[in-house]
């Protein structure tokens, strides 16, 4: 007797039930000086909002330090470095954080300030991983080894747009202007 493969399963819809926590979207407490909102919409291949996705972020603090025991440079009180926000029925998310600083690049040099982003959701067998870069850091972005590896005509899908209270970064999972995702 031969058994076939077990059908694959997507990572949702459990996300909206079990993974969010009340202060997940606040990497820093509200009212923190210099805090900004990173807001956006997760869109599917047809350009429709994804109402049951989860956006996770991981980043350095403004001095380029990580809230992690392996970072010997110390920690910023009140800065968690990790955020998690489920999308709303309209596919929207928001993360309150401090703008990150530059971080060391593997093999030497420096990476431009960025936020690592994972998106999980219905229809995805695995999370997709991307980065948010900032328009205020044009010179650092031009020298960033990861961003330079992305075809020039697609780099703008990784750069957030400035807003009145922070930045906007939409994630397009497929289709026209699909966000660049990294194989990690």
UniProtKB/TrEMBL annotation:
GO terms for molecular function: ferric iron binding; protocatechuate 3,4-dioxygenase activity. It comes from the Bacteria. Coiled coil: none annotated. Belongs to the intradiol ring-cleavage dioxygenase family. Signal peptide: none annotated. This is Protocatechuate 3,4-dioxygenase alpha subunit. InterPro entries: Intradiol_dOase_C (IPR000627), Intradiol_dOase_core (IPR015889), Intradiol_RC_Dioxygenase (IPR050770), Protocat_dOase_a (IPR012786). Pfam families: Dioxygenase_C. Keywords: Dioxygenase, Oxidoreductase. Residues 34-175 form the Intradiol ring-cleavage dioxygenases domain.
């Amino acid at each position: 007797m031969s058994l076939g493969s077990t059908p694959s399963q997507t990572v949702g819809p459990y996300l909206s039930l079990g993974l969010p926590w009340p202060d997940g979207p606040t990497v820093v407490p509200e009212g923190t000086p210099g805090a900004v909102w990173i807001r956006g919409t997760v869109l599917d291949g047809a350009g429709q909002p994804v109402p049951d996705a989860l956006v996770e972020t991981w980043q350095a603090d403004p001095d380029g330090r990580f809230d992690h025991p392996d970072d010997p440079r110390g920690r910023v009180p009140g800065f968690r470095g990790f955020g998690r926000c489920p999308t709303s029925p309209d596919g929207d998310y928001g993360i309150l954080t401090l703008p990150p600083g530059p971080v060391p690049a593997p093999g030497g040099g420096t990476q431009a300030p960025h936020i690592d982003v994972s998106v999980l959701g219905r229809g995805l067998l695995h999370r997709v991983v991307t980065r948010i870069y900032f328009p205020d850091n044009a010179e650092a972005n031009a020298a960033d080894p990861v961003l330079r590896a992305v075809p020039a005509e697609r780099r703008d899908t990784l750069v957030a747009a400035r807003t009145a209270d922070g930045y906007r970064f939409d994630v397009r999972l497929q289709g026209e202007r699909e966000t660049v995702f990294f194989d990690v």
